Amino acid sequence: MYVRRSIFESLGGFDESYIIMEDYDFIIRLRKRYSFKIIQKDIMVSARKYETNSWFRVQIANLCVFIMFFFRRSPREMKQIYKILLTYR
Predict the structure, then answer these.
(1) What is the pTM of this model?
(2) Is 5 part of any domain?
(3) Looking at the structure, do residues 50 and 89 belong to the same domain, yes or no?
């Protein structure tokens, strides 16, 4: 996510009470005041989650946390569920 510093600061930056989903919270606030576009380019991200979890399991964990975010569950509870659903070494 690339955002001008002035815009980031005008929105109060990331809400540090979020342990998980802080980027999604920021995007919701961003969309209310600014227009933006998604750059159609490939990027490389870490595959650590997929080394010990199937693609399907990671997607289910993401969906569960997204639903919890939508229903305003606590960040701590979202993190607990995410860790339970995914196995880490």
Answers:
(1) 0.78
(2) yes
(3) yes
